[in-house]
Amino acid sequence: MAADTTTAGRRQAHLEPNAARRLSGWLKGYKPLAGIPDELFDALGRPRDHWLSLLGDFAEYPEGEFTSRFGLATRHIRDTGVSYRIYGEESERSWPLNPLPLILGQKEWAQIARGVEQRATLMEALLGDLYGEAKLVADGSLPAAALTGSVDFVRAMRGVSPPGGRHLQIYAADLGRGPDGRWWVLDDRTQAPSGAGYALENRLVLSRAYPSLYNAMNVERLAPFFDGFRRGLAAAADRTDPRICLLSPGPFSETYFEQAHLARYLGFLLVEGDDLVARDGRVYVRTIAGLKRADVILRRVDADFLDPLELNSASRLGTPGMLEAIRTGGVVVLNMPGSGVAESKALLGFMPMLSRKLLGEELRLPNVATWWCGQRNEREMVEANLHRLAIAPAFNSRLDPGGLSRPQLIADMAPEARATLLAQLRDRPGDFVGQEVVRLSTMPVLRDGKLEPAPFVLRVYAAWTPEGWKVMPGGFCRTSERLDVRAISMGEDARTADVWVIDDKPVERMTLMASKEEVKVRRILGHLPSRAADNLFWLGRYLERAEATLRLARSLCTSLMDSETALHTTGETLACLQKLLIEWGALDEEALGVRALDAARNALHDQKAYGSVIYLVRAAQRAAASMRERLSVDFWALLLTLEKELAEGAQTPLSEAEALQQIESALQLVAALSGLSQENMNRVAGWRFLDMGRRIERGINTCRLARMLAPDAATTDDLDLLLDLADSQITYRARYLVGLALTPVRDMLLLDPYNTRSLAFQAQTLKDHLAVLPSLLEDGMLEEPSRILLPLATEIETADARDLTTARMLAFERALMDLSGAVADRYFLQGANAVPTLKLSALA
Taking every annotated instance into account, which residue ranges of this chain make up the domain DUF403 (predicted)? Predict the structure, then answer.
């Protein structure tokens, strides 16, 4: 395609010769699709000025620097686990981001923003009528079947005045350019629009990759949008300083990372359905301090799964009684249950009329021409034009009619599928719509050093704020690797791009820091949700157990490499090591007596053994993933690195030296994780449960090791190994110059309060934690965890090492296991019968 050499020439004239040649090569090699609007070139074939500015700056980078810059920035994606999940898959995928943003000028963006704001206003008015007086149905403007045929129409919300005064708090529209270059609405998103958190991540990565360019091009910031969004949610509550929750389907949601990131960025409480309980017309969060009121819930759970009592009884994602609490005004849930009905394609054909009727305006952004087959004339028109129209489901459904999940041409379908679809179209025409075939417009992406066109969809968000609707200056852009696509989802061939809205003047920098309003200073433990406490507790236990198993495996490896050690010449202590690993589930019983190296390898990499290191690390990763919003980026990155190194080591057999090297590296990573938790986490309730898990696990392990390696008949080799496993060799040798003896070793490992590895130290630390955790009742009586721990700590504090027996050590171990169960019963999820606090009031 011929380019405007005047415009391009002016830009190239300011470049170094090599950069000018590179820019010229990019432009000449770029081949837009015939008849398809493109972002790089305008309708006359001229490169747009803002794209020339961007590409010109890229061309000035030294050879390879562009790739290097983007590669370094995208390490953030890998190191922090930015990910998504395809529906039906168990594993997550790394977030795919294009190195080039989608660029839009301020004048064009203003038109988009006005159109999206109008569309959001129309959706709010439509939902207000559908769930209110229903005048549109009564006067025949809307067929009732176009609403009630949708699974997203929640009949139980009819006549309910929305708490907070609105049905929609956030709206999104999927946009593409039409054949004439105008922006068209492809789909409305009113249920629980996703992607805003990913838009934040995309912006973070690209602003890191090209910081000077990002500032020089006056890219509009996203922070003002999210500030208004947060203030709008707070304003919906009926009290100041409300508790705002983001309700997630859980870690197996396709966009769980985004939900966690958004909750962390906005300061919301990330909860799941089991974290909430509806009682007396209100909704409460289960916390370690009892039930605390939830004022506003931003939901990412589809309405059908929100309340198993009144909606889908098979749902495990919602909270029984949620709809009743909404009806009584006890909680604000946004977007309101039932708002997803406005997403139905059956309504698209009615939108121009609805805009005139409800707003008195023509649509600023037209949508794809759509005909609902539930009406006779429209059905006959679709049937007469099946060869040129796309057929799509009329309603959102998990069981799409005719096997359709998106618009498809009849001609593109296999004969059997085509016959099935046509039969269903005749039997249930109201389940289908016919749509004008739309090929998506394209934007430039970089592939193998060349610019190539890629179809894209732009999702634009509007949030209700105290000042009215506010549109995000940018959005969530998805591109496809295939040229002929009509819809893009985050599947096999989709990537994402940041969206830069370019202003004509420097933009004001802004963060979410409060400025005008008074913020009350607090120093409290925080109302930690029970589920988060549970996961933090087990994260601590899994990591501690993994460390203990690593130390056992290291001892197996060193027994093979040190020719002077007793472990190499005698088999009794070596067998004891293997018995310990079998008892801990790191080896199966048939492994007793196998080569030490084979035992070490299995203890590290056996994915089926529940006590192996890789199994424990993955269990820790799952626990961490369930409360990712509470962990630092560094902590998560270290955990991912630990799992990655273990997984790579499992691919090939390791020699003694290689196995030892991997064990040492893993121990260093575990130590780094421990250091982060000790030095970088605030000493609030979350940290205490993480540390309690570690302390209980360490105490149990110490008792088990002492029972196995320090019985009355213990050998010098046994005691030496015990000190090594407990990381107490240096301390013992500095304190005792006479050599190894049973009683001093027992004292140091079990009763010494100054040894951070001893049982006594764990018991004292656990006492300190329980002393500051909140009490559920105010009757002054000890709660069960304290009833178990205080006698145990006293007995350990007053014990004499000479009187210790294996039976007594076993009693200590069992007491710690009882303590673990009591902590779970007291602080973690309790089902529908969770014990409330004494003050279960509006101010709880």
Answer: 528-828
Tally the C-alpha atoms within 13 A of residue 839's C-alpha that lie toward its C-beta: 6
CA angle 49, 51, 56 (to 5 degrees): 95
Residue 396: exposure state from Cβ atoms within 10 A (0-12, 13-18, ≥19): middle
Residues 6+ away with beta carbon under 8 Å from 17:
none
- Beta strand 432-436 with 102-105 is unpaired
C-alpha separations of 666 from 429, 617, 644, 669, 757 in Å: 61, 10, 10, 5, 19
Mean pLDDT of 16-36: 86
Cα(821)–Cα(700) distance, rounded to whole angstroms? 13
Amino acid (1-letter code) at residue 342: A
| Nearest residue to 61 (alpha-carbon basis) of 194, 209, 175 | 209
Torsion sign (Cα): 343, 349, 352, 356: negative
Q: Each residue of 524-556: pLDDT tens digit?
A: 555 789 999 999 999 999 999 999 999 999 988
Instruction: From residue 63, give the alpha-carbon distance in Å to each of 19, 59, 60, 67.
Output: 10, 9, 9, 9
Q: Per mean pLDDT, which range of 253-257, 526-530, 833-837 is the poorest? A: 833-837
pLDDT in tens, 75-133: 777 776 777 776 666 677 777 888 899 999 999 999 999 999 999 999 999 999 999 99
The pair phi, psi for residue 382, each rounded to 5°, is -65, -45
Q: Which amino acid is residue 289, in one-letter code?
A: A
CA angle 629/634/639 to nearest 5° reads 85
Q: Tell me the CB-side half-sphere exposure of residue 223, using CA atoms within 13 A.
A: 11
Give every CB contact of residue 281 below 8 A, 6+ residues apart in sequence.
Answer: 324, 325, 328, 329, 330
pTM over 0.85: yes
Distance CA 121, CA 638 (A): 45
pLDDT tens-digit readout, 794-809? 999 999 999 999 999 9
DSSP β-bridge partners for residue 293: 284
- The three state secondary structure string of 582-649 is HHCCCCCHHHCCCCHHHHHHHHHHCCCCCCCHHHHHHHHHHHHHCCHHHCCHHHHHHHHHHHHHHHHH
As a whole number of angstroms, the distance between CA 801 and CA 794 comes to 14
* Contact assessment for residue 295 and residue 238, using Cβ atoms and an 8 Å cutoff: yes
Write the single-letter amino acid at 343: E
So what's the pLDDT on residue 20?
85
Q: Which amino acid is at 560?
A: L
Domain boundaries, the chain: 5-94, 102-345+444-502, 370-436, 530-833
**Nearest to residue 830, comparing CAs of 279, 193, 340?**
279
Length of the chain: 844
Closest CA to 19 of 71, 79, 60: 60
- What's CA 380's distance to the chain center, in Å? 46
Beta bridge partners of 468: 465
From the CB of residue 62, how many other CB atoms can be counted at a distance below 10 Å?
A: 9
Q: How far is CA 333 from CA 210, 304, 442, in A?
A: 39, 14, 37
Helix (H, G, I), strand (E, B) or coil at 136: helix
The C-alpha atoms of residue 516 and residue 520 are separated, in whole angstroms, by 13
User: Alpha helices, DSSP H only, in 428-467?
Assistant: none
The answer to whether 258 and 194 are in contact (CB under 8 A) is yes
Nearest Cα residue to 183 out of 121, 114, 123, 120: 114
Q: What are phi and psi of 424, to 5 degrees?
A: -70, -35
> β-strands 244-247, 296-299: how paired?
parallel
CA-wise closest residue to 300 among 192, 172, 154, 167: 192
Q: Which residues contact 701 (CB under 8 A, 6 or more apart)?
A: 544, 545, 548
Instruction: Specify the amino acid at residue 760.
Output: A
φ, ψ at 296 (rounded to 5°): -130, 135
572 exposure class (CB count in 10 Å sphere: 0-12, 13-18, 19+)? exposed
